[in-house]
Design a protein that fits this description.
Blueprint: H1 2-31, E1 48-53, E2 59-74, E3 81-87, E4 94-99, E5 103-110, E6 115-124, E7 129-139, E8 148-152, E9 157-161, E10 165-168, E11 172-177, E12 180-190, E13 202-204, H2 206-246
């Protein structure tokens, strides 16, 4: 009977401590700030076909690509700098541009989100090469505290040969400024010497060439391994026959 009383008195003494610890834990749990929801990526953008025509109605620039804008800006609701990603939807994107002897531009406008994007391609008549030399982006999204305007005229992307189209199957990132980059998906573009409404022969980008090189290297390594194993087998077999003859 004495032992039962001691056990009951021990529980009576411990119970208030357990209650206090539980209340204290709940108090600390309510003080901890909620974890912000992760930013949801928009997914892979749809490819859009954009072309520019001369004054006589002939196509002078062609582009078929998926585009994604990655912009950092001051958020009105979050009151801090955030990074947001937006896909350009072809059915909502207007396109225009200009062509000259050594300069061609493509302008894309999305009125729904007040976004304007301009690509400028420059041709070097000496080397017969072209490249993306300039990008201008302006955006006034609802969450932006103030509009974002970016211009870079010293770029060197999408290098190709005049008369050929530049093609890159893989996703690639064009860094324009510290607060802006453009992701391209399955991009094919030809800014000069377009014949009719068809792209010229495609020149693969370095990313695609690297992807093709990997299986070639792996295949060559496997072939070399097979040859080594076969030689080892033949050498071993020859030695075994030689041993039999000596006996």
């Amino acid at each position: 009977m004495v032992q039962i009383c001691r056990v009951q008195s021990w529980f009576v003494g411990v119970t208030p401590l357990l209650i206090f610890a539980t209340v204290l834990h709940q108090g600390f749990a309510t003080v901890a700030p909620p974890t912000p929801a992760p930013h949801k990526e928009p997914g892979r953008p749809e490819r859009g076909y954009y072309n520019v025509t001369n004054h006589n109605g002939t196509i002078c620039l062609m582009a078929y690509m998926g585009l994604q804008l990655n912009i950092s800006y001051n958020s009105t609701s979050q009151k801090k700098v955030v990074q947001d990603v937006m896909n350009l939807q072809p059915n909502l994107t207007k396109h225009s541009g200009l062509c000259d002897s050594d300069i061609a531009s493509l302008n894309l406008t999305v009125d729904a989100v007040k976004t304007n994007l301009t690509f400028v391609f420059t041709m070097n008549s000496t080397s017969n090469k072209y490249h993306l030399s300039e990008v201008t982006v302006s955006a006034a999204w609802p969450e932006m505290k103030e509009p974002v305007s970016v211009h870079n005229s010293s770029l060197d992307y999408l290098r190709g040969t005049v008369g050929y189209s530049y093609f890159c199957r893989d996703e690639q990132t064009l860094n324009v400024a510290q607060n802006l980059s453009i992701n391209t998906f399955q991009l094919q573009v030809q800014p000069f010497a377009v014949k009719g409404d068809q792209f010229g022969a495609a020149e693969e980008c370095q990313l695609d060439e690297d992807d093709m090189l990997i299986p070639i290297v792996v295949g060559a390594a496997l072939a070399g391994l097979v040859v080594i194993v076969l030689l080892a087998y033949l050498i071993g077999r020859k030695r075994s026959h030689a041993g039999y003859q000596s006996i």
